[in-house]
Amino acid sequence: MSTHAMRAIRLHEHGGPGVLRYEEVEVPRPGPGEVLVRVHAAGINPPDWYLRDGMSNLPPETRPKFELPVIPGTDVSGVVEAVAEDVEAFSVGDEVFGLLRFPSFDGHAYAEYVAAPAADLALKPAGIDHVHAAGVPMAGLTAWQFLIELGHDHPSPFQAATHRPVPLDAGVRVLVNGAAGGVGHLALQLAKWKGAHVIAVASGAHEAFLRGLGADEFIDYTKNRPEELVRDVDLVLDTVGGPDSKRFLRTLKRGGSQFPVFFGDFDEEETAELGVTVTATQVRSSGVQLAELGRLLDAGTVRVAIDSTFALADARAAHERAARGHIQGKIVLTVA
Q1: Does domain 164-278 have CATH number 3.40.50.12160?
Q2: Whole-angstrom Cα distance, residue 286 to residue 33?
Q3: Which residue intervals of the chain are DSSP H helices?
Q4: How many other CB atoms are found less than 10 A from the CB of residue 13?
């Protein structure tokens, strides 16, 4: 392999995990406002397999534009190798992590090197390794922008209204559905950091894990229906979404809010009758917010759980693991 070449995963067609190819490509050059990062680890997220299968599960009007072949991935942790002349925030040798160019699909993170916008990066917390740092960006920023601070004024493709987080404190009761997953387990910890009472919903295998993260109550959805057990919560964060998401509306008290991370199917008349609000947003890259998360990670206030790791060349196996579901934390690719 030449000194200007690297290994990366690319898609030449859409389909199952088998379409992920491990190939030799050119090392990218950082443009204005960018740095070149030698990738040590890359996080795997749902948009990666949406891109792989052609985004058939997204409404056509919300699908970003892209061209094949494409290197998937948005979450990276690595070391700065070079910086553009106009970049002052980072220097060669800095350890960084970030969510790259989201919500576009130009992250190109499944690779040995990536050209990354400096604005999308933050210094990697010194207290965690690259694998754990790579598991944070998309999931952590999703939890942050839904629960703590939106931090941008870009309109959501899913609704006309601007999403507004609910102030969290000791008097607030929060239900997190899908609490063991990437977004869920970080959202649970952020809500606890703010002092909220958190009810975690997941399968029974995750109970000890979630109670260890601070869940005040746990519901095993394989044995009980949360909407039959819970009433008068202030906020539902549903990381699963989909057509069944509306069942959680009846767990809310009047004036409460439901935040579906993946858009659901809601009836405006029903929400008005119940006196509740349904609102969502689309996560966006933010080095500034990642730096705030990094401080919590360094302090041990928030930790990221790793479900499993796979070598970059084994991205297909990583996507097959994701397809089996019941993920506890994050799946991460390691880059030699």
Answers
A1: no
A2: 14
A3: 46-52, 130-134, 137-147, 182-193, 207-212, 226-229, 268-274, 287-299, 315-324
A4: 10
Nearby residues of 171 by Cβ (< 8 Å), 6 or more positions away: none
One fold for 5-138+285-334 and 164-278:
no
pLDDT in tens, the chain (336 residues): 446 899 999 999 999 999 999 999 999 999 999 999 999 999 999 999 999 998 877 777 767 778 899 999 999 999 999 999 999 999 999 999 999 999 999 999 999 999 999 999 999 999 999 999 999 999 999 999 999 999 998 888 778 889 999 999 999 999 999 999 999 999 999 999 999 999 999 999 999 999 999 999 999 999 999 999 999 999 999 999 888 899 999 999 999 999 999 877 888 899 999 999 999 999 999 999 999 999 999 999 999 999 999 999 999 999 999 999 999 999 999 997
Under 8 Å between Cβ of 123 and 291: yes
Q: What's the residue count for the chain?
A: 336
Note the CATH number of domain 5-138+285-334.
3.90.180.10
Cα distance between residue 80 and residue 91, in whole Å? 7
Six token digits for residue 68: 């094949």
User: CA 147, CA 157: separation in Å to the nearest integer?
Assistant: 19
